Amino acid sequence: MSAAVTIYIPRDSAALAVGADRVARMVAQQAATRGIQIKLVRNGSRGMFWLETLVEVATPQGRVAYGPVATGDVAGLFDAGFLQGGAHALHLGLTDEIPYLKKQERLTFARMGITDPLSLADYEAHEGFAGLRKALTLAPAEIVQQVMEAGLRGRGGAAFPAAIKWKTVAATPASQKYIVCNADEGDSGTFSDRMTMEGDPFMLVEGMTIAGIATGATMGYIYVRSEYPHAIGVLNEAIERATTAGFLGADVLGSGLSFTLEVRKAAGSYVCGEETALLESLEGKRGIVRAKPPVPAIEGLFGKPTVVNNVITLATVPIILARGADFYKNYGMGRSRGTLPFQIAGNIRHGGLVEKAFGLTLRELLYDFGGGSATGRPIKTVQVGGPLGAYLPESQWDIPLDYEAYAAVGAVVGHGGIVVHDDTADMSKLARYAMEFCAIESCGKCTPCRIGSTRGVEVIDKISANKNRHEQVILLRDLCDTMLNGSLCAMGGMTPYPVLSALNHYPQDFGLAQPDKQAA
User: Fold this and answer.
1) What proportion of the chain, given as a percentage, has pLDDT over 90?
2) What pTM, to 2 d.p., does this model score?
3) Engineered SS bond to 4: which of 39, 99, 215, 283, CB 3.0-4.6 Å?
4) Is 374 helix (H, G, I), strand (E, B) or coil?
């Protein structure tokens, strides 16, 4: 009997949403009907969402891709000999040679779509737990130093150096310390955290365990947004398997060190993406921002020293430990070291995930990877960094994607989410939406955010209705200044970014003939 052919069909939420489970069942059914032996692996997504459901077949030449595959295509694929990489209208060639993938620099996402997410054997065969094993040979301070030298900064948006948080927690004496993973991924157009948790969960487990060893923390929590049920299910299964195999628990890999991990479902609040509101929620209280100081690294969860890092920050730690700080910091530019998984969404032909070193441009992402707008119309603006990110006009699409370069023009790289709009977008409506979003999602603790966002909606409505338009524009700018400088956290502090960028770059959408004299 000939050996079974391995077929890969993603179990990622994006693939499931377009029928991946139905395609998998049809493939199994067709193989059984034809008496063909197959091995069906449910992998993570490669991040090319316009090609989902992407079906890959292992051949002697490598994995051959077909997509987007619907259930009605399956019989035809078998007829065309796709198990041997045969020609078909959906044939995409060798997966690794698809330009969208080939042009990337996948470090954190190196295993994404390649392995079975819940196979420890697959994970270890692709450098999994090499970072943890290395960490166990180092002193805690040496682990922190590796993260420091690599230049790893918070990938959740704030870009704060990860090692400084770790160093502070390590140096703060306490009977209990915690590692908290912020997986409350709520920014528009973002999905890299979800892809990581669903497609390579052991990477996050490993990163959090290394953080625990480096800081003396013995307990970790992953705070996952409630809208991610598949991620929660995969993480719980991964934690159980890692614990059984000795990678978690009372004696991590026989080291005598303890680290335990649990998943917590988030409370469905955007502001819980802010670290102190997250900690309040994790403690069972209403998610309201805490005043700082003290910072969470000194008094965090239950008043104990706590590292709070984003999913991608923690998931990047294993490769830094496995290959060394010098390897990682050689990617990127300036103070933005390494890579970032950029997520392209909105009005774009080829939406998906692109991991590249800092320093590429928005124009490259939009056209070299994204293929231009989905509608075929000219792209008018791009919001980078989530719903609180600035709108960038074409004149700024050649600025290198780098934290400092973006900050210099009043923009943010944030979590790497990119939402594209074509020339039919009305920027006054998008600016209004930013204020409305803030009003809905504000925790209400500080006045600039709670009241300012409500007044902002009213003022933009008056501008659109031409009620003393120029006076109202002055008032809107004054209001934005108050929110920027007086808000307790980034919720109110960053809402002016999309509003002011829309006003400055697209005055005509507000009924202004030209930028007013206060425009930056």
Assistant:
1) 92
2) 0.95
3) 39
4) coil
What letter does residue 20 receive in the DSSP assignment?
H
E strand or H helix that includes residue 343? strand 339-346
Neighbours of 60 (CB within 10 A): 6
Give the containing element (helix H, strand E) for 98: none
**DSSP H/E element including 323:** helix 311-323
Segment 249-308, tens digit of pLDDT: 999 999 999 999 999 999 888 899 999 999 999 999 999 999 889 999 999 999 999 999
Work out the number of other CB atoms within 10 angstroms of the CB of residue 117. 28
The helix (H) or strand (E) run that includes residue 272 is none
3-state secondary structure of 436: helix
How many CB atoms neighbour CB 459 within 10 A? 25
**3-state SS class at 463:** helix
Dist. CA 213–CA 206, nearest whole Å: 11
Q: Give me the DSSP letters along 46-78.
A: -SBGGGPSPEEEEETTEEEEE-S--GGGHHHHH
Which has the closest alpha carbon to 244: 229, 256, 222, 261? 261
For residue 325, give every residue at least 6 positions away whose Cβ sits within 8 Å of its Cβ, in sequence order, or none.
146, 147, 148, 149, 150, 151
Q: How many CB atoms lie within 10 A of CB 179?
A: 29
CA–CA separation, 149 and 161 (whole Å) = 10
Q: Which of 160, 151, 181 is nearest to 306 (CA)?
A: 181
Residues 213, 169: Cα–Cα separation, whole Å: 11
Positive/negative CA dihedral, 216, 221, 223, 229: positive
CA angle 416/201/257 to nearest 5° reads 115
CB proximity list for 429: less than 8 A, separation 6 or greater: none
- Is residue 210 within 8 A of residue 146, CB to CB? The reply is no
DSSP 264: E
pLDDT digits (tens, 9 = 90+) for 207-247: 999 999 999 999 999 999 999 999 999 999 999 999 999 99
Rounded CA-CA distance 278/436 in Å is 22
Longest Cα separation, the chain: 82
Q: Is 469 exposed, middle or buried (0-12, 13-18, 19+ CB in 10 A)?
A: middle
Report yes or no: 11 and 55 within 8 Å, Cβ to Cβ: no
Terminal C-alpha separation, the chain: 72
Contact 136, 33 (CB under 8 A): no
Write phi, then psi, for 222 (nearest 5 degrees): -110, 115
Tell me what pLDDT residue 516 has.
54
Contact 280, 271 (CB under 8 A): no
pLDDT, residue 190, reads 95
Cα-to-chain-centroid distance, residue 281: 21
Strand ordering across the sheet containing 219-224: 260-265, 219-224, 178-183, 306-310
